[in-house]
Specification:
Layout: H1 3-29, E1 32-38, H2 51-64, E2 68-73, H3 77-90, E3 96-102, E4 105-108, E5 111-114, H4 127-133, E6 135-136, H5 137-146, E7 151-157, E8 187-191, H6 213-222, H7 229-245, E9 254-257, E10 274-276, E11 300-305, E12 309-314, E13 319-326, E14 333-334, E15 337-341, E16 348-350, E17 353-356, E18 363-371, E19 380-384, H8 386-400, E20 416-419, E21 429-436, E22 443-444, E23 464-467, E24 474-481, E25 490-493
Parallel strand pairs: 1-2, 1-3, 2-10, 3-7, 7-8
Antiparallel strand pairs: 4-5, 5-6, 8-9, 11-12, 12-17, 13-14, 13-18, 15-16, 18-19, 20-23, 21-22, 21-24, 24-25
């Protein structure tokens, strides 16, 4: 017996056991996380009947299998995005993450999109609207993988007929079903039907099963013990195909497997936790502001200055409530509701204006709102540059009232023209040029308006005067504004 060799072998075995224990411990500590979404009540495109039931049933099955589940039913874009971010925030390296989606889906140019409830009605040529208002399956899979999940499973029951198809007309995307996918390593994707196929909600109007054809079979297979995900997918393929064939419908679920080895989701002997995400629970008056802001779509904010600043907010979507805050501290303020109703939503339209004093210095105004589904929008910063707005406001006023720029009857005496209207916007004017009849408009009026930077909205007590050339029949005037832009040349007949 060679003692040295035996000792070396024992050390090697001990090291192997330690490595194996580490692997098993890591696997045991890996969390099982799931996001389950069911969308029935679409606003514009056709409503569904069983997607919410499917989501509820799958959620219950996953809870039994030890998954911590985030469930979000009948959600629009913002709430669906919030649910995905919530899942991402819980993923740690080595976890198993699963997403189940039941609702409408659409394939455009080889990319599959999952549609939230507020998906707009679009026409051919407007595919970009879908891309901006839905969730691409491949992007969703990549997001989960990039958060560190070792295994990502996506089960998509969204292969129904194209909700935008118009008989006899060119349609958007595939007429039915979803497109093939090529997932990255560590991802398993199961679709309820193959490419170009539509998934059945029910076998007939007399079919009283509360789940879709695909999901009712999937639930049976998930309840089976010691089956790998591939075995489950294979069994689902066979049983769904046979069931759909009873009404002469071709539906064969498709799966795409890039998981190394076998994935078994058998119950781990403990119940998972459930977190139900409800739409419209966020407050429009947040207590803090994040550093990052969504860039599109952003609200439009305009400033109109006279005795003070009238601020108008234009929101890029229907809203229930608008909030704002001036500066970096303090609370957000609710603008309240008007007495007018939105004919599309039936809700009262929120007020969209507030006032700031004429003395308001340069500041950042923060704007947010609650959309028609009750979800809070991002918080948008709007820069208020006082002098820039003084010039913009003064330009608007002067350009809207060109017909009264010149006065020939004022107190300046005969043979002179005065420009009293310019005194209302002294800080907006750099210089005024004029000329008579066919002369070039190059003469400069003496600018005695005296802009007060501390009170830029105040009118000047002075006014400009031009001496009229004898026998001239008209005076031509052009304003150079403080931002170096120019007005059009305006002509005025000189009274005899």
């Amino acid at each position: 017996m060679n003692i040295k060799n035996d000792q070396a072998l024992m050390r090697l075995l001990a090291g192997f056991v330690l490595i194996l224990f580490t692997i098993i411990s890591g696997a045991a500590e890996a969390n099982r996380l799931a996001l389950v979404i069911g969308n029935n009540d679409y606003e514009v495109i056709p409503k569904l009947q069983k997607a919410v039931n499917d989501a509820n049933a799958i959620s219950d099955a996953l809870l039994y299998m030890g998954f911590d589940v985030i469930k979000a039913n009948d959600v629009g874009f913002k709430a669906m995005s919030r649910a995905i971010v919530d899942l991402e925030s819980k993923i740690n390296k080595g976890d198993v993450a699963l997403v189940f989606f039941a609702g409408h889906g659409l394939a455009i140019e080889g990319t599959n999109y999952l549609l939230p409830l507020d998906t707009p009605d679009i026409k051919p040529g407007e595919e970009g609207l879908i891309k901006d208002s839905s969730f691409a399956v491949n992007n969703l899979a990549d997001r989960i993988r990039n958060k560190g999940a070792d295994i990502s499973v996506l089960i998509i029951d969204a292969c129904r007929d194209n909700p935008f198809e118009q008989p006899g007309k060119r349609s958007i995307g595939l007429s039915r079903g979803l497109a093939r996918v090529d997932p990255a390593e560590g991802i398993f994707i199961l679709f309820s039907a193959g490419q170009g196929q539509s998934a059945l909600d029910r076998l007939s109007d007399a079919d009283n099963n509360k789940n879709s054809v695909f999901t009712r079979i999937l639930l049976q297979e998930l309840d089976s013990q010691n089956l790998s995900m591939v075995q489950i997918a294979k069994n689902v393929q066979i049983k769904v195909k046979n069931l759909a064939a009873k009404i002469d419908h071709n539906q064969v679920p498709a799966y795409y497997d890039q998981i190394i080895g076998d994935l078994n989701l058998t119950s781990i002997g403990k119940q998972g936790s459930l977190n139900v995400l409800k739409e419209g629970t966020a407050s429009v008056l947040p207590s803090s502001i994040d550093d990052e802001y969504q860039s599109n779509p952003a609200p439009l904010v305009s400033f109109d200055g006279f005795d003070g600043w009238d601020v108008s907010i234009s929101i890029p979507e229907a809203a229930q409530q608008i909030g704002y805050r001036i500066g970096e501290t303090g609370s957000f303020k609710d603008l309240g509701l008007s007495n007018e109703f939105d004919h599309k939503t039936g809700l009262r339209i929120p007020n969209n204006q507030f006032e700031m004093p004429a003395s308001q210095k340069d500041v950042t105004i923060y704007v947010t709102w609650k959309d028609k589904r009750g979800e809070q929008a991002e918080i948008y910063p709007v820069k208020f540059d006082r002098m820039a707005e003084v010039v913009r406001s003064g330009k608007r006023v002067l350009q809207e009232m060109t017909e009264i720029w010149v006065n020939f009857d004022g107190p300046v005496g005969k043979g002179k023209a005065s420009f009293p209207y310019f005194s209302f916007a002294p800080c907006a004017i750099k210089e005024v040029l004029y000329g008579f009849d066919d002369e070039p408009v190059t003469n400069k009026l003496r600018n005695n308006l005296k802009c007060n930077p501390d009170e830029p909205l105040n009118a000047s007590r002075n006014f400009m005067v031009a001496k009229i050339t004898p026998n001239a029949s008209k005076i031509n005037v052009r304003v150079v504004f403080a931002d170096n832009t120019e007005s059009e040349t305006v002509s005025f007949d000189i009274p005899k």
